[in-house]
Write a structure and sequence with these properties.
Elements (H helix, E strand, L loop, with lengths): L1 E5 L4 E6 L4 E20 L5 H5 L7 E5 L3 E2 L18 E3 L2 E2 L12 H7 L3 E4 L3 H11 L2 E7 L6 H9 L10 H4 L5 E3 L7 E6 L6 H7 L3 E6 L5 H6 L4 E4 L10 H12 L4 E4 L1 H9 L3 E18 L5 E13 L6 E3 L2 E9 L5 E6 L4 E4 L14 H14 L1
Parallel strand pairs: 3-4, 4-6, 5-7, 6-8, 11-12, 11-13, 13-14, 14-20
Antiparallel strand pairs: 1-3, 2-3, 2-9, 3-8, 3-9, 10-12, 15-16, 15-18, 17-18, 18-19, 19-20
Helix pairs in contact: 8-9
Length: about 375
């Protein structure tokens, strides 16, 4: 990515790898950027989306037409920076209007060097991605503009998301502790594969002291903190490349330590149990995805960001090296596996985001389920 200063009036062009182009105006920084074009169906929570490390190397297309109305504040970021590679909106707000706003979204994108484009038909672009699938893309503005054939060649030279090993690029380099709120009841080792700030906070609210460890953490590192449970976070990239987290999770499963994984952590559990993973055509991204908890029959509206999924049988439990496993949650839109649980050991995972700072909060009970596992193991 190369960027220059803010320039909302500068012309810009978005070039997809299949050759389709959209012309608009620069939004945020002026320059060029590349990534995988994906769309998010959420109408709120854009600040949490932008700062979610799971979006590393992705250019996010917002399906909601009006973006930026509430500006940017200093309380809602999920990490220390914006992680999206680029940002695509139809009608950006001219002036933010919210009592917590400190600056406009345009100013924040510019300050962090995030190249975006506005004024394009995001509905047409979203329909195109639904029909053709997520694909590589480039956004060019200012001096980066040039011959479209040359720009297309550059887009096609960008590495694909399939086969990308990215969790190490977004995870913490040093371990840190998020203390329990109130009385400390449990200690959890959380493997950071791209963790969002709200996740350890949700655990801390339940009396859990969270030791956030780098993606490169060893078994010795995990058990050095004396964990009552181990958590594997969300994160970017292809789970087929995550050999170290899979090996680490298998070591945790062998010890029968209570285990909880979300998003990338769900895919890691799938691999650890012997299931495969595959790339979805265009993925699930947004805060309005219907999922059924098959253990209770309850339907939840959930927050998602994943382009890969676990390939596991839906109709019956499977035998694994760690006992029987079953699909615990399923997406009601397309029957994609949205959760796994072991029946003979204290381990489970979901493909979505129960911490969901921007909402909905239907799935927050999963943190309580994790607490129950640790209580049961302690008893």
């Amino acid at each position: 990515m190369t960027t220059s200063t803010r320039g909302a009036s500068a012309p810009a062009v978005l070039v997809l790898e299949d050759g389709r182009t959209f012309r608009g105006r620069a939004y945020g920084a002026v320059g060029e950027t590349f990534g995988e074009a994906v769309f998010s169906t959420g109408m709120t929570g854009y600040q949490e989306t932008l700062t979610d490390p799971s979006y590393h190397r992705q250019v996010v297309v917002m399906t909601a037409p009006h973006v930026g109305n509430t500006g940017v504040n200093d309380e809602d970021p999920e990490s220390q920076r914006i992680w999206v590679s680029g940002y695509v909106v139809r009608d950006p707000a001219r002036t933010p209007s919210n009592w917590r706003s400190r600056r406009s979204l345009d100013e924040e994108l510019t300050a962090q060097g995030v190249v975006g484009i506005s004024g394009i038909d995001t509905r047409a672009l979203t329909r195109h991605l639904r029909e053709r699938g997520a694909m590589r893309v480039g956004i060019f503005s200012g001096e980066a503009l040039g011959d479209e054939a040359a720009l297309l060649a550059r887009v096609r030279a960008v590495p694909q998301m399939k086969g990308a090993d990215l969790s190490g690029e977004v995870a913490t380099a040093e371990a840190y502790v998020v203390p329990a709120i109130g009385t400390r009841k449990f200690t959890v080792a959380a493997i950071d594969l791209g963790i969002k700030g709200m996740t350890p906070h949700r655990m801390a609210e339940r009396g859990i002291e969270v030791h956030v460890l780098p993606a490169t953490a060893t078994v010795e590192d995990v058990y050095a903190v004396g964990p009552d449970g181990v958590f594997f976070s969300n994160g970017p990239g292809d789970p087929a490349t995550a050999d170290h987290p899979v090996s680490l999770m298998r070591a945790v499963l062998e010890r029968s330590t209570p285990l909880f994984g979300i998003c990338f952590g769900n895919q890691i559990l799938g691999r650890a149990l012997g299931f495969g993973t595959y790339k979805l055509k265009y993925g699930h991204r947004g805060i309005n995805q219907p999922v059924q908890d098959r253990t209770t029959g309850k339907v939840e509206i959930t927050a998602h960001n994943h382009g890969f999924a676990v390939d596991a049988p839906l109709d019956a439990p499977s035998d694994t090296p760690y006992g029987r496993a079953e699909v615990s949650h399923v997406c009601l839109n397309d029957n994609v596996v949205e959760g796994l649980r072991l029946l003979d050991r204290p381990a489970f995972s979901v493909q979505y985001h129960p911490e969901a700072a921007a909402g909905p909060h239907d799935a927050a009970y999963l943190f309580d389920r994790f607490v129950s596992l640790m209580e049961g193991q302690r008893a």
